[in-house]
Amino acid sequence: MKKIAFATAATLLLTGAASAADLAARPYTKAPAPMVSVYNWTGFYIGVNGGGGWADKSWDIYNFGGAAVVPSFREGSHTASGATVGGQVGYRWQASNWVFGLEAQGNWADFSGSNTSLFFVPGTVSNRTKVDALGLFTGQVGYAWNNVLWYVKGGAAVARDKYEGVTNINGFVFDRATDTRWGGVVGTGIEFAFAPNWSVAVEYDHLFMDRRDIAFTSTTTNLLSRGDSIRQDIDMVTARINYRFGGPVVAKY
Fold first, then answer.
1. What is the dihedral sign for C-alpha 216, 219, 222, 223?
2. 187 with 150: CB under 8 angstroms?
3. pLDDT tens digit sequence for 201-219
4. Residues 148-158: pLDDT tens digits?
5. Residue 212, beta-bridge partner list
6. What span, in angstroms and rounded, lies between the C-alpha atoms of 61 and 228?
7. More exposed terminus of the chain, fewer Cβ within 10 Å: N or C?
8. pLDDT in tens, 42-92
9. pLDDT higher for 15 or 112?
């Protein structure tokens, strides 16, 4: 009986060892790579901006009361400065790290300044300037580091100006003119996306508005008062916030 029990135990032991040997080894599985969120700048966007700017103005009178001033006489220069606020709308598309875009921007402005004219009796007359509206129509090229975008822009610019001649004795406006002029613009900015569809940016723009002949009308007779050739350049620094109507953040492995 003991021999039978011993033989049975030995058989079970050998059978179990053989079965364990027949089991395949557990395969090794590599852990999945962590997911990385990559911001995508593609899409339409709309936003608002605000900041300040300054416009450098140089006045050269070439006509006074219908009579030519030859050669033209430098009346003087001044810087018109102040605040600006507006909005922008555009579209961007991203290829690898490069971002391309088109944008239209319109701003209200209050860039004001004046200087005493050197043409009239010294100290009697001032030339006053105000830039009250601006528009930019630009293309963009940028480079993105995930949710940080640096870009440059360039294109066309338009500005609306108001000019006045003022007597320093009593502040009487004796002539005035308005002008809408076109020029060029270059700028640069850096933008940070802080949410899937929201971003903030700081931008600098320089507007080349060149020189333009301006005809002033008398406020008392409605006749030509004088003609000035006025050159101006405009600089702006603005903070911007944009909402993008684009796809979600892309996940990469």
1. negative
2. no
3. 999 999 999 999 999 999 9
4. 999 999 999 99
5. 230
6. 4
7. N
8. 999 999 999 999 999 999 999 999 999 999 999 999 999 999 999 999 999
9. 112
Which of the listed CATH numbers 2.60.370.10, 2.40.160.20, 1.10.260.40, 2.60.34.10 matches domain 36-252? 2.40.160.20
In the chain, what are the domain boundaries?
36-252
DSSP the chain: -HHHHHHHHHHHHHHHHHHHHHSPPPPP-PPPPPPEEE----EEEEEEEEEEEEEEEEEEEEEETTEEEEEEEEEEEEEEEEEEEEEEEEEEEEETTEEEEEEEEEEEEEEEEEEE-SSSSTTSEEEEEEEEEEEEEEEEEEEEETTEEEEEEEEEEEEEEEEEEEETTT--EEEEEEEEEEEEEEEEEEEEEEETTEEEEEEEEEEEEEEEEEEEEETTT-SEEEEEEEEEEEEEEEEEEEEEE-PPPEEE-
Residue 38 pLDDT: 83
How many residues comprise the chain? 253
| Amino acid symbol at 214 | I
- Measure the CA–CA gap between 251 and 53, rounded to whole angstroms: 40
Per the DSSP assignment, residues forming a β-bridge with 237 are: 52, 204
